[in-house]
């Protein structure tokens, strides 16, 4: 009998070894994540602790969850991509009951062979130690047992995940981890971390303390808080609603940051770190952007008037997968004609694009890092006169912004530069009467940070070397607009990703053509899709 069990054990080991297939080897290494944690410690104030939570799992249908996507912050600091986890970082070394020193604690999802058969292998405590380089690792089911008393710290810095729900039968979901953390940190029951985080994000908005921006900020916040009981019951929210002078906003932010339990510092520190890309991050970003650009090229080559928006989406996302990108960085936008005028149009359900312009805003996510690239091209392969005129204004606005994409330029200068070119162009065509009306047809901003999120964390002031931003002016003229009908249904956005340098920026997405001449040249080429014949009998 003993020999029989030995045989089964050997067989299981052989099956496991033979069953291992090649996996990508160019993820960020453990040293990268360790250095990111050290960078966070350098920002933390004395006698403080930072907590980084995993995102909760989200239900897709009945007993099936969406494919899990890690909290970018937790991935940034650890490389961990599973749910039910929390990382604790301490400014100064701590000692456990046995006198052992530690500077971080990592609580991770427990191994469970029965569950792993259904949902995949988990790293577990030993896997995290070996693969990710942590020393002090525990099962998240033991958070209440091993998490020290946090109330002794002067600053407890954290951000709770959104949409928490208590999963029946689990004791280590995000809901339970937050509940235990609140108790160990002695957080008052009336402390609403989400409301405070929302207020802090508004106060950090560029120019929030200026007299010009203040009325709009208060008007916007009133629209949010007016129907929310949580905002109405929060003293900081009420103070914001009653602000009369810009100086009061600064005082309000100082008071929020003086709190022992601090979400504002969490946002500030993670933004300061993530807005500057390391050499390793830039390498991954370039890969994601190259994949995205090549996918846009294939869509330009493949498009035919009889194609559907969904078909074009599939072509592009196939190239992503073919080249190793695990996800799209955000829901894919494929808008033909007037559909392109809907800024975040994701239905992609038009069955024929016809002879319209097609706006495709699709970016690949590679090893956690996302591109954000938009190209607009004619389904017929050739721009009409009206389409070309609108396209060229957007192109010229981009070119003007590229010239100032360098260290020291502010986001305000980028915005003003793009709007000036768009406004002048639309006036020249008779679509608007004054440059100041440009927002009628250009309603969004020109640039945002890019990285682990498509709208990545960062501080919207002056550009710094090794930031990566988007440059994405656009013009959208919906049906029924107050202009000549010949312009109706034309939507153009050109979006490129730029690495900021001290003297100039590097446009990372040039593999995909930008000018009308280059786009038409690409569209004239044959696609691999041209060889495919797939017919479904109706």
UniProtKB/TrEMBL annotation:
Which major enzyme category is it?
Answer: hydrolase
Q: Does the keyword tRNA processing apply?
A: no
Q: List the InterPro entries hit by this protein, alphabetically.
A: Aminopep_P_N (IPR007865), Creatin/AminoP/Spt16_N (IPR029149), Creatinase/aminopeptidase-like (IPR036005), Pept_M24 (IPR000994), X-Pro_dipept-like (IPR052433)
One GO MF term attached to the UniProt entry = metalloaminopeptidase activity
Cofactor requirement: Mn(2+)
SUPFAM superfamilies, alphabetized: Creatinase/aminopeptidase (SSF55920), Creatinase/prolidase N-terminal domain (SSF53092)
List the keywords (alphabetical).
Answer: Dipeptidase, Hydrolase, Manganese, Metal-binding, Protease
**Which intervals of the chain form a coiled coil?**
none
Aminopeptidase P N-terminal domain span: 28-166
Keyword Metal-binding: yes or no?
yes
What EC number(s) does this enzyme carry? 3.4.11.9
Q: Which Pfam families match?
A: AMP_N (PF05195), Peptidase_M24 (PF00557)
An individual GO BP term = proteolysis
**Which reaction equation describes what this protein catalyses?**
Release of any N-terminal amino acid, including proline, that is linked to proline, even from a dipeptide or tripeptide
Similarity section: Belongs to the peptidase M24B family.
- The name on file for this protein is Xaa-Pro aminopeptidase
In its UniProt entry, the species of origin is given as Dyadobacter helix
Q: What is the lineage of its organism?
A: Bacteria, Pseudomonadati, Bacteroidota, Cytophagia, Cytophagales
